[in-house]
Design a protein that fits this description.
1463 residues; alpha+beta; 10-stranded mixed β-sheet; 6-stranded mixed β-sheet; 23 helices; extended; disordered N terminus
């Protein structure tokens, strides 16, 4: 019984040794555990691993860098690969562009396997951005009432979009389902008209391209009619994909927010619902645009529905945000679906869609506060993540942002060490490096990160010495060590199995066993045994145990060294048998900087004090803090007695043995701590301190401060009195304020509140020179003094020419004369910059709203015409509403109608509305030809406002005229008018000169670089003159075609000619590439003449920029047959261009030079079928180019042109070339339809990158154990028909895991395998052809780390006989599985039983119809009620022909590869 505790103790000790010693160190050291044999192998183990190339180094060469240095490897002998990160392009974000921007724009990252790097990025989302809204609506019969409602909502949708942005477009598309059975009733009469007054069935049609014309949208929408189909799920996924990829057909704009509204009341079909036995469609969706010129999707019966991951990926790549507007009974499907999109919204649609506008408004408010940042084209070996310290992340991965500010984000990139069981450095190059595109929402461009995993070979291995004498010619010497040839061992490759077996050299004197029984004798040297992948014994005879060195606190060698040959080898700075002692004395330094307070010695980092007591610190100092309060309290009574004769020991001080010294002041250097107590007899505080060791009281000295600290005389009785008086004063002030504010009607009667409150003009006279004036209005300040509480409005008027004798306000010569009345009102809406742009949609719509509502008001005044010339502005210095919009318009009416116009205007301003037009109270201006009336408002706390008065500038004005502005009264408020009048004098100077352009139009070439436009002056009265000039865009754009220019021209006396110089910019590459032939023009205006000047005949000049092609007089479309050089030195097209594919990713493009002396060539190439605008450009010198980094088995188009000093010449004909095939990628996801615990359907998707034409698949399967290690041979099946992507495997072992592998073959060979391990007993069952979003979806490795995949099913089934162990392929030549037409959305192959023998089960023939025998058998089965006959469920609504079978479809063969694009 006593042995058992000893055994437990031994086990515990062994565990402690291993966990705290070498075992633990090596367990965490992957570099040592890897036992890497070469430098390259070492640095690929872990990002921290380094390799020592020192020849004399005896420790493991692969280790952490700090360990190698610690064990004696020199810095120069250590190989360590470092990652790098650089910024390639970083243009600062400018908020003025009003579009989404990201900075930096380009990065480079090189990482070691397992390494992680991050960098900060800025993203800016403007407050308002353009919006493209595309409505995609279900047109099945049950949505007829929804369509009727939508037709009447055109204006509501327009108002909704106007509230979002002034720059919007709206479009419309419709969808039903595939025009095939069982989705659609294929009877001819139902194909013509599925329901009464309905259109023929279709899959998807783009009805209205995105447009800003809401009237056109409403008109086209009213023409639409409903359609119909059979089964309940709809084909909306086909429509969504086409909407995303057909960006030109739909009209998506760059840098706008793309919103896709998906409206339906039904569930959805998705990938494999078109490839099952129902529809017979074989081909996987190719993710390409297939809309015909009418906008109809034509590939619905040629390819399958897309998958959910495909839609998530494509909508993200095209910056499209989906909004699902669905009804209650299908809400659950789309609630799960929308969570897979980074940014999306879902709303419940009423049965008739009457709430769609409110639904969109709510959804957009949520969307505009979110932003998604996605990384596209991430290589398999890398992983990305985005975080932000500014914004919170949503469940879907997007960010809650604040628009209008620059957001701070962090992108983290990590290089994986393994992908599956494969090290990243063994992956193909395309999986280890690439350009990652980082795209925030609504940003068409992206941040490009050139990322790669470092898999370089160590430089020292490239310089190895073969059959080196250092290795006895039996090995190669590289990186400081010998790599022995086969059959040789040892550090110098001097040992082989044929060497002597004599063990005497390995026996230590006094021992019997070789190597102390702890190793093996090889060639006269001991090779010590290792334990747990680490060396356990060392020494010449393995006589030392590396775990038997001294320990400190349980750590071997104090974890500050290593155990070698029975002793600790300490790190630098440590010593002692167990490395427990630091070599420095830093831990023995006292508070004064001395060593152990000169009362001890420092040994092993600790002070050994001469005298030790309770109050001695670790540095031999007396520390009162170790018991300070206790010491003070112990001697308190004695100090009080001996120093003051007070306290508890008063009269009995003889028992105290303290040496008390009275001092004037306790000095800090004399006292470490102060003791302070209050003397109860006089309430005074006394202080003292203790010196010496308190444990030896006779040696302790107490210093007491002579002067006590006593409180002053008591005045505490004043405190309550002061508090009472302050409260009383505050109460009186509060009552007074309440009394003044209780009733505004009484304020005028209260002298304390109303007296002194006045309003009036700030100045009484202004003198203006007409030549210096830049406006026909003057903002005249009016101020308010006194109390600023409450609101005041002031009426004012201005009269023109008051200086004339017999002045009358209105020359009523003809009361019926029509005159223009200027009308100004302040609207309740805030001002935006778009209102300054007359052509903007926001300005146009507000102008129409203003003119319509004002016309409805003023048309009741006799003779009034419709308002016109409506403009918008803001009014500075107008109080709290100065950011509101001011509208200026002109109302033409009889002169006699002025009083009625003013009356009507003031009435509606007081009511704050002109019909539906909301206006702010207290502001208006009505201007006639000689006077004006108006009102301004002082809001609460506003002290100054400007009165904008017209100046009535006329050509026939006197040389000096006067106007008078008068404040009439205060209709609202209690203020009195102070300064009532202000006079304005305008001095009209004589014209001294006329300034004008020499002519109205000019033409300049871009080669001129500067457009020089002359301006001339005609002198009438010589002197100084000045005028302002400014450029303005027409078809040319400032910053792209020319440099915006603005300035002043000053003519000194006698000068008659000046010049405006406008720099011209070179033709951009994109304009050159697109052969942009638009005429580029801009205007220059002369403005604001001063010093007696006046604008002459031509106040504006139009400048035409002629591109080099136009200047040279040569069209860029000159035929290639013209071999001679074109006029003026331009080159013709290169001759005889040709292309040849070199490999799957390279094409050589060559040509002959054209006549002349070309300086180089520009090559552009693009994928056939892509727009030419997406072409890549190459600049080469020789007449050939090698195009690299191409897609395998892909059709490319290319052109070339030559260039010289005169610019680019003509392009050659377009040349076509296809790259060679490359092996396919691994097949798509593997999916299992579990029939039973021993039978499963295995299906797979076509490889994402076929890289050619797939010719066959190979399926392998076999048993594996719990560690996923194969048990026995793998069984293989060759599927030579690439259309057949499903096998049915029987007779599997029950409850046993199997590994399944599938790979594809094309003309280049076999591609990599896709594998999955599954135990059928643990898998759920799933019916076919109904939409199910699994709660735990299968991971789709093809989609990358961001997407999930779903189960899929193929058309063809592979099945074996009941007794067979190998599956066989079925085909049309006869087999045990036959095609039978089946119906119903609840179809489940597991529940189907056949009542006929296999020989009589009808099969689908090669023709497009079933034989009459087959139809007869089906009808017979139906009449008997067989389980194979299933009822068909349809879309709600009237059904025709319930229970009838639609015409059968043949199995569609896979179309041949297209001639254009990539396959």
């Amino acid at each position: 019984m006593d042995a058992l505790p000893r055994v437990y103790a031994g086990l515990l000790l062994l565990s402690l040794l291993c966990t705290t010693g070498l075992c633990q160190r090596n367990k965490n050291n992957q570099c040592v555990l890897s036992r890497a044999k070469s430098c390259t192998e070492c640095i690929r183990v872990d990002k921290e691993c380094s390799f020592c190339t020192d020849e004399s180094f005896k420790e493991p060469r692969c280790d952490f860098r700090e360990n190698l240095l610690r064990y004696g490897c020199g810095e120069a002998s250590i190989v360590y690969m470092r990652g790098e990160m650089r910024t390639l392009q970083n243009i600062t974000i400018s908020k003025s562009y009003m579009r989404t921007e990201v900075a930096p724009q380009s990065m480079l990252m090189r990482l070691r396997a397992g390494e992680e790097m991050s960098f900060d990025m800025d993203v800016f989302q403007p407050l308002e951005s353009p919006v493209d809204l595309y409505i995609l609506m279900d047109f099945s019969y049950s949505m007829s009432d929804d369509l009727d409602n939508l037709k009447s909502m055109g204006q509501k949708l327009a108002k909704f979009l106007q509230a979002l942005t002034s720059n919007y477009t709206i479009g419309f598309g419709k969808f039903v389902d595939k025009v095939s059975s069982p989705q659609t009733d294929m009877r001819p009469e139902k194909l013509r008209e599925p329901w009464n007054n309905a259109d023929s069935p279709f899959s998807f049609k783009n009805v209205i391209r995105l447009t800003s014309n809401i009237d056109y949208f409403s008109k086209e929408l009213r023409k639409e009619r409903i359609s119909g189909n059979l089964d309940a799920p709809e084909g909306g996924f086909d429509a969504i994909l086409q909407t995303a990829v057909c960006k030109d057909n739909i009209g998506w704009r760059k840098d706008s927010t793309h919103l896709l509204v998906f409206s339906t009341e039904s569930a959805f079909h998705y990938e494999a619902d078109g490839t099952n036995v129902l529809a017979g469609i074989l081909r996987r969706n190719d993710e390409q645009c297939h809309l015909d010129p009418d906008g109809t999707y034509r590939y619905d019966t040629k390819q399958d529905y897309p998958s959910v991951p495909t839609l998530v990926r494509l909508l993200g790549q095209h910056n499209i945000i989906p909004i699902f507007a669905v009804t209650n009974h299908s809400y659950s499907y789309y609630e799960k679906l929308h969570k897979y999109f980074p940014i999306s919204e879902i709303g419940v649609l009423q049965e008739d869609s009457s709430n769609i506008v409110e639904l969109l408004r709510t959804a957009f408010e949520r969307i505009r506060s979110k932003m998604d940042i996605r990384a596209d084209f991430v290589p398999k070996a890398l992983k990305t993540e985005f975080t932000s310290t500014m914004y919170e992340k949503t469940e879907s991965g997007s960010f809650h942002i604040t628009r209008g500010e620059i957001g701070k984000f962090n992108m983290r990139v990590k290089a994986l060490e393994y992908v599956g069981s494969q090290h990243v450095c063994s992956l193909p190059e395309k999986d280890r490096q690439g350009v990652i595109h980082v795209k925030p929402t609504s940003l068409s461009d992206s941040l490009k990160v050139q990322a790669s995993v470092i898999c370089d070979v160590c430089p020292c291995e490239e310089q190895q010495e073969f059959s080196s004498p250092k290795c006895n010619f039996n090995g190669d010497f590289a990186c400081g060590q010998c790599i022995c040839h086969t059959g040789w061992r040892g550090d110098a490759c001097d040992c082989s199995p044929a060497s002597s077996l004599n063990n005497e050299a390995c026996i230590r004197p006094g021992d019997v066993e070789p190597c102390s029984g702890r190793g093996e004798c090889l060639c006269g040297k001991c090779q010590c045994y290792s334990e747990d992948l680490s060396l356990r014994f060392d020494g010449e005879f393995c006589q030392y145990d590396v775990l038997q060195c001294p320990r400190t606190s349980g750590f071997l060698c104090n974890d500050r060294g290593r155990c070698s040959k029975g002793a600790c080898v300490c790190e630098s700075g440590w010593e002692g048998p167990g490395c427990e002692c630091p070599t420095s004395n830093d831990t023995c330094i006292d508070s004064r900087g001395g060593l152990c307070n000169n009362h001890g010695r420092c040994e092993c980092g600790r002070c050994i004090c001469d005298i030790v007591s309770l109050y001695t610190s670790s540095t031999c100092e007396i520390s009162y803090s170790l018991g300070f309060q206790a010491v003070c309290e112990n001697i308190r009574d004695c100090v009080q007695c001996q120093a003051w004769g007070t306290g508890k020991m008063k009269g009995n001080c003889s028992s105290c043995h303290l040496q008390v010294h009275m001092v004037e002041e306790l000095k800090k250097e004399e006292a470490n701590e102060h003791c302070s107590f209050q003397d109860e007899e006089d309430d005074c505080t006394y202080h003292y301190t203790l010196e010496g060791d308190p444990s030896v009281l006779p040696n302790a000295t107490v210093q007491v401060q002579k002067k006590k600290e006593c409180p002053p005389g008591s005045f505490l009785w004043l405190i309550p009195l002061l508090i009472f008086l302050i409260l009383l004063l505050g109460l009186l002030l509060l009552l007074c304020w309440k009394f003044c504010a209780c009733c505004k009607a009484c304020l005028a009667l209260l002298p304390c509140c109303a007296r002194g409150r006045t309003v009036g003009f700030k100045e009484d006279h202004y003198m203006l020179r007409q030549s210096l004036m830049s406006s026909d209005h003057l903002d005249t300040p009016m101020v308010r003094s006194g109390s600023l509480k409450g609101r005041d409005t002031v009426r004012w008027k201005i009269n023109n020419n008051v200086h004339k004798q017999g002045f009358t306000p209105i020359a009523a010569t003809n009361p019926k004369e029509l005159i223009p009345y200027g009308l100004s009102l302040r609207l309740t809406r805030l001002f935006t910059q778009n209102l300054l742009k007359p052509e903007s949609r926001e300005c146009e719509q507000l102008r129409k709203e203003v003119e319509d509502n004002l016309h409805d008001i003023y048309k009741h005044i006799p003779g009034c015409h419709r308002v016109q010339q409506t403009k918008f502005r803001v009014q500075p210095n107008s109080g709290k509403r100065q950011d509101h919009t001011i509208v200026d318009t002109v109302l033409t009416a009889p002169r006699s109608a002025k009083a009625e116009i003013i009356k009507v205007t003031e009435k509606h301003v007081s009511h704050e509305a002109f019909n539906d037009l909301k206006v702010s109270p207290g502001y208006y201006t009505v201007t006639s030809d000689q006077d004006a009336h108006g009102m301004v408002e002082f809001q609460e706390a506003v002290e100054l406002v400007d009165v904008r008065v017209p100046l009535f500038i006329r050509e026939d004005d006197d040389d000096e005229k006067q106007l008078q502005v008068e404040a009439i009264d205060v209709p609202t408020g209690i203020a009195e008018i102070g300064r009532r009048l202000v006079n304005i004098t305008i001095i009209k100077e004589q014209v001294g000169s006329l300034i004008t352009f020499l002519q109205p139009t000019y033409t300049h070439s871009r080669f001129d670089k500067v457009a020089k436009i002359p301006v001339v002056r005609e002198i009438i009265d010589d002197g100084k003159s000045q005028v302002t000039y400014r450029t303005r865009d027409l078809t040319a754009k400032g910053g792209r075609d020319y440099v915006f220019t603005e300035g002043d021209l000053v003519f000194q006396p006698g000068e008659t000619r000046k010049e405006v110089q406008v720099p011209l910019l070179e033709l951009t590459e994109i304009d050159t590439l697109l052969h942009n032939r638009q005429l580029k023009q801009f205007a220059i205006d002369l403005l604001h003449p001063k010093n007696g000047a006046k604008i002459g005949q031509y106040s504006q000049a139009t400048v035409t920029i002629a591109d080099p092609e136009v200047v040279d007089g040569v069209s860029s479309l000159v035929g290639l047959s013209q071999v001679p050089q074109t006029p003026k030195g331009r080159l013709s097209a290169p001759l005889n261009p040709s292309a040849q594919a070199l490999s799957s990713r390279k094409i050589r493009f060559s040509w002959f030079p054209p006549p002349g002396k070309p300086q180089g060539y520009k090559v552009k190439y693009w994928i056939q079928g892509d727009p030419e605008s997406e072409a890549r450009l190459l600049d080469v010198k020789p007449p050939s180019a090698e195009l690299s980094n191409l897609y395998p088995f892909c059709d490319y188009e290319m052109q070339v042109c030559a260039y010289n000093a005169m610019g680019e010449g003509l392009y050659s004909d377009v040349i076509h070339c296809r790259t060679l095939e490359d092996v396919p990628s691994e097949p798509g996801r593997l999916a299992f339809n579990v029939v039973s615990s021993t039978v499963t359907q295995l299906s797979w998707a076509e490889p994402a990158e076929t890289n050619g034409e797939i010719t066959a698949y190979e399926v392998s399967y076999g048993l594996v154990n719990e560690d996923n290690i194969p048990i026995g041979p793998m069984k293989k099946v060759l599927v030579e028909d690439p259309k057949k992507r499903m096998v049915l495997i029987e007779n599997l072992r029950e409850s046993q895991p199997y590994r399944y592998m599938v790979k594809a073959r094309n003309g280049a060979g076999w591609g990599p395998e896709r594998e999955a391990t599954i135990n059928l007993a643990t898998q759920p069952k799933r019916p076919m052809s109904i939409p199910i979003i699994p709660d735990v979806p299968i991971i789709d490795a093809e989609g990358g780390e961001d997407y999930d995949s779903y189960l899929m099913y193929s058309t063809d089934v592979l099945r074996s006989a009941a007794s067979s162990k190998h599956p066989s392929v079925s085909d049309d030549s006869g087999s045990r599985w036959k095609y039978v037409q089946l119906l119903g959305e609840d179809l489940d192959l597991r529940r189907i039983t056949w009542r006929l023998p296999p020989e009589t089960i009808p099969r689908l023939s090669g023709s497009s119809h079933l034989s009459s025998d087959t139809e007869g058998l089906l009808r017979e089965e139906d009449s008997d009620g067989a389980t194979g006959s299933l009822m068909r469920s349809g879309t709600p609504g009237p059904q025709a022909g319930e229970g009838q079978h639609p015409p059968p479809l043949s199995v569609l063969s896979r179309p041949a590869l297209s001639q254009g694009g990539c396959n």
